[in-house]
Amino acid sequence: MHRVGIISGRETFTRVLLEALNRVPGIQAEWCQVTEPRNDLPNPYRVIVDRLSHCHEYYQAYLKHAVLTGTYVINNPFWFRADDKFFNYSLAARLGVAVPRTLLLPSREYDERVLEPDDLHNIRQPIPWEWLLQQVGGYPVILKPYDGYGWREVYRIDTPEQLLEVYEDSMMDVMMLQEFIDFEHYVRCFVVGKRHVLPTHYDPLERRYILNHEHLTPDLGTRIVSDCVKICTALGYDINTVEFAIRKGVPYAIDFMNPVPEAKPEVITPHYFHWLVEKVRDMVVDYAFSGVRTPYRMTGDFPVNPLPAPAASRGWYPGSRLDHWPRRDPPPV
């Protein structure tokens, strides 16, 4: 019997997932019973699904210890806490995925308890705003934190005055200046197990999913699925969402650091909810029976292209699946 633990709040997604897992012979799923771990003793779970450690540091240490003792943790706790969006854009460009031109800015303020002004002499001051704006195509631009989740503190900037005002208010946040993609279509993809991809039609302004299973041409759908698999394989995420803004037929990867995506059925729609539960259940079962372990160090062996990266992805990535288009009537889980 393989024990599976779930760390989350009392949410519908993990409750339904737990019930679905317990219908699988050989699987015993439960809310993870977190007792004070001892450094030299193993964790009792074969697989742990984590949807809360980003909010509570105790879970972070608990999960890293679990990995060392052989537990497979979804998502990888070592990479989850080290990730940032600027690195992600840089990596995606090397993978051949189209991304907006993006610049990393020094924070407006710093912690005066540990730093003196002279400690930051390596950073160019003042910021050459006009030159930076030229690098990303001019106004409008996007200003957002390099480590933000979702749409937190994401600003569209249209004037020099607005740019300076928002930057001044960012305080100690490290921000990015990014090319604005004036899109004609927007896609949000759920990616499970680095290979199952569900491209949904999404309205980012209304934060709303649109049930339309014919919103992509076959070529565009193939490219988006390929890009999703490339990104999540390189980052090591077993659960993630990847968002694309499509401009003139080119899908630009806008946001792909969301390893704990919103999963309420009333938000993502019951149709996509059932797809997500089914795929996560199957992934957990595969990991439980296979004996695979979570890697706890990055090798740096990313499948990258030499710079400058091409704007277009080419072909399917190994391990991708052709079953990414959802059926209209999802099976029960």
Notable traits:
333 residues; alpha+beta; Rossmann fold; Dna Ligase, domain 1; four-stranded parallel β-sheet; globular
Helix share bin? 25-40%
The profile of the biggest β sheet is: 5 strands, antiparallel
Q: Over all CA atoms, what is the radius of gyration?
A: 21 Å
Indicate the mean pLDDT. Answer: 88
The spatial strand order of the largest sheet comes to 11-10-9-12-13
CATH fold-level topology of one domain: Rossmann fold
CATH top level of one domain? Answer: Alpha Beta
CATH architecture of one domain: 3-Layer(aba) Sandwich
Class from helix and strand fractions: alpha+beta
Shape: globular
Q: What is the end-to-end distance?
A: 20 Å
Percentage of residues in strands: 15-25%
Q: How many helices? A: 9
What is the count of β-strands? 13
- Order of secondary-structure elements: EHEEHEHHEHEEHEEEEHEEHH
Unreliably modeled segments: 308-333
Task: Describe this structure as you would to a colleague.
The chain is of the alpha+beta class. Among the domains are: 79 residues, 3-Layer(aba) Sandwich (Rossmann fold), CATH 3.40.50; 79 residues, Dna Ligase, domain 1. It is built from nine helices and 13 strands. It has a five-stranded antiparallel sheet with strand order 11-10-9-12-13. A four-stranded parallel sheet has the order 2-1-3-4, sandwiched between helices. Helix 4 crosses helix 7. The radius of gyration is 21 Å and the shape is globular. 35% of the residues are buried.
